[in-house]
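Box S1 | Example of a co-folding query
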Amino acid sequence: AKYVYRFSEGDMGQKDLLGGKGANLAEMARIGLPVPPGFTITTEACRAFMRDGQVPPELRVEVTMALREIEDTLGRRLGDFHDPLLVSVRSGAKFSMPGMMETVLNVGLNDASVKGLAEFSGDERFAWDSYRRLIQMFGKTVLDIDGELFAGALEARKRAVGATSDVDLTADDLREVVTAFKQIVLEASGREFPQHPREQLEMAIAAVFGSWDTERARLYRRRERISNDLGTAVNVMTMVFGNLGETSGTGVAFTRDPSTGHAGIYGDYLANAQGEDVVAGIRNTLPLAQLETIDPTSYAALLQAMRRLETHYRDLCDIEFTIERGTLWMLQTRVGKRTAAAAFRVATQLVDENLITMDEAISRTTGAQLSQLLFPQFDADAPKELVTTGLAASPGAAVGEIVLDNAEALERTRAGADVVLVRRETNPDDLQGMIVATGVLTARGGKTSHAAVVARGMGTTAVVGAEALDVDLDAREVRVDGRVLRPGDVIALDGSTGEVFLGDVPVIDSPVMRYVSDGLEAGLAACGDEAMVELLRSVDRVMTHADATRRMGVRANADTAEDARRARARGAEGIGLCRTEHQFLGERRECIERVVLAEGEAERGAAIEALLPLQRDDFVELLDAMDGLPTTIRLLDPPLHEFLPDLTELAVSVALADADGGADLRDVALLAAVRRMHEQNPMLGLRGVRLGLKIPGLFALQIRAVAEATVELRRAGRDPRPEIMVPLVGSVRELQLVRDEAEAILAEVGAAAGLELALPIGCMIELPRAALTARRIAEAADFFSFGTNDLTQTTWGFSRDDVEGAFFADYLENGVLTISPFETLDADGVGALVATAVSGGRATKPGLHMGVCGEHGGDPESIHFFHDAGLDYVSCSPFRVPIARLEAGRAAA
Ligand code: ADP
Ligand code: MG
Ligand code: MG
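Box S1 (continued) | Returned holo structure for magnesium ion
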């Protein structure tokens, strides 16, 4: 294998082999930008290193050849005592990865070449400072020596000479520091600091490879779902110096503002400094624009390079550059990270600049970014006092009183307060508090910690891993950077940025939300400034194009006319799931209770009869709201426990009443009935089609109500389009029985009204058996709708309500799961059943219409899966309709 690629040999398509940094350096060199000469050692060499415990022997030869070429071109030798060539050794994996060894600068300096550097630069202080930096970086990252030892020695020197900052140290001081550092290396590692430049280089390369496999790096990869097998590349690059006086400097730049997307040049510049100084924030940087006055020639060269990069990458880029005595060098570039708002604005700007197409523009934005823009936000203009920052784990803006445990959370919410639950970390015992809280804040844990997973599942705003927090339950206080917060103090969490503020920060609705709910004009009217207006216009263009591009329809899950109208305003093209049992929650619950508990035909008949007008009115309203659009009405699917009184509570109250001299006879009868119907595992019990077949007349009533509502609306000149959906079917026979009954009713109601009522009748596919026998089931179905929530529960054997809080966090930590299968469809398992059902169903009926109505219908990654699986539509909560529209468009683009 070839292990070494000169920058002039690679290109940006080779990120697997050369890592992100190396591939982009090669690309810059290829298009003629000034990159200091260098080469990249491939990830393959790293994999060989991991396998064999040493670098491949051929690598030495290849490195020698590549190095020799650089030396010959520049007329300098690595570590020469006269005008030495120095190099940086930089790690660079395919995905950027904190947790790995980063960079060693100034490799090649030793006791002799430090003099050569002084001579070449005419600056002895600079040379000794570079040398001490090398020993420090090399000692820490390559030799694994505690960095405090070096920092301590440097401080000691400063104290000894009365210097307040590093720059006050003279060349002689730094020479002393170098002596001290070398002593530290000898004592801590048992060996001399390597003087031989080539040995330094080889040790640094091996250290980069070795850092791929450290505990920290592996932990990071597990969290970010990056494979352990990739390995990292190593970039060896000629050193250029930004710290050679006022005509030198270094900076970072963005080709557009990555936070707002505003077109223009953004960045920071620091004269007479090296790259690490900019990041370390030791000195205050200047806005990049000021470089124009400091060094107009370099500034012009930089602008030209940035334009070249943008037209070449056709995207926003970020850049590291250095100016050495008036010469510009490009040290790094990549397609830049950006905020959600910037993503939309930049995408349409690039379209207007003829750099990308609208298809590409929608690929450059995501449903997740759109959803961030939909959440209420803190008023940008309001004064805010930042307390600390953690990881943005679950978006939203939450304001509330601090509470430290469940009891406090419940007590304060009962008293009408909004609360933020603050914990060191959360575990399943904290669930109650999390449910009532408007926000959750933890000191520990990453984006897959218990707090993060559960909060996202509940849609609660969360900031996790705010390490500066010290949550002291004994003292009932939270200390953070010298501040003490107590229960009752109000804080505000920004779940999209991870920021934590003190006090009651005003929250404003997002104009993007206004736009998706009420249209462009309303959205524009809600915009505070020009940037917002531009953002909204970008979002509108992207959405319009996504709608025109997507193949799949987008429907909403809605149970009431009000939800239906809301969904329709957001672009829903129908209802994919109306859960009729939801129409019986609350006050009407007793109606169902009576049907279920009725003894004898007569009693049951009467109970069912009473439901008819209620249901018919519900359907009239719903179908009217969705006039002209398909509306899938699912027949009753109540897990019984949701409709019956709680067995334990009822038993206790009857027993107490008995002790008091006699319980109500009705209660006693109810208790007996509830006992009779009690199920150990109601989610797998008498529900869905099973209940419909068990209780004659129940489904018939619902079907009749649908039929009569349809007749009523048609007579009024409307265009109702109901579809009847049977839940929890596992066998074609179940569906056939309901279908026969339904057809008879439809015929009867139709005949009486003098109308033809040929409503589609289909079923949910939410049991593995249904998916596996879809070929048969399709004989009796006009459509399928995948109920992926139940299908996930039944495929994994997970009871969602029981397992999520109990052990999902562990499963995410130990890698059994990479994401909750209730959030993103498990493509390998559940997805295989979906694919089986699609092909089975269409084998029987080629045009069989199919959609999905589980929560996955609103999840971006799952939507792409459904597109590929050939579904006709997704159905999701009204809130997620715009997100689904965008993702369905992206899937088709
Ligand atoms: P990171 O990924 O942490 O930015 P880099 O490898 O980019 O690590 O390097 C750290 C700093 O050193 C950056 O500011 C970079 O610009 C600078 N640097 C790296 N190589 C060189 C070099 N050959 N000459 C001058 N500065 C360099
Ligand atoms: Mg960098
Ligand atoms: Mg279901």
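The first strand starts at residue 4 and ends at 6. The chain has 36 helices and 31 strands.
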